């Protein structure tokens, strides 16, 4: 079983300024790490889950997540934006 999170799945200087761009940036890391097999399919699953109930929390924290057939291992990606995300 693979590790849940690795260094390649962490972006401490996330430059995205929107939720969608942040999700795409982290999903691209997941693709590069061979955790996600279809970027657009995965992002569609994330968007569908977010449409059911937003995953934003107080304090500027977002935890978008979903179940997706495009993910082949339990995975956690982390991004931090010093500028904030709209």
Q: What keyword list fits this structure?
A:
alpha+beta; two-stranded parallel sheet; 33% helix; 86 residues; two-stranded antiparallel sheet
Description:
The protein has 86 residues and is of the alpha+beta class. It has one domain. Helix content is 33%, strand content 9%. A two-stranded parallel sheet has the order 1-4. Strands 2-3 form a two-stranded antiparallel sheet. A hairpin with a 3-residue loop joins β2 (56-57) and β3 (61-62). The N and C termini lie far apart (35 Å). The model has no long low-confidence stretch (mean pLDDT 94).
Task: Choose one word for the global shape.
Answer: globular
Placed side by side, the strands forming the largest sheet appear as 1-4
Work out the radius of gyration. Answer: 12 Å
Q: How many distinct domains?
A: 1
Mean pLDDT: 94
Percent in helix: 25-40%
What separation lies between the terminal Cα atoms? Answer: 35 Å
Order of helices and strands: EHHEEE
| Number of alpha- plus pi-helical segments | 2
Low-confidence segments = none
Question: How many strand elements?
Answer: 4
- Based on helices, strands and strand pairing, what is the structural class? alpha+beta
Strand % is 5-15%
The main β sheet shows up as: 2 strands, parallel
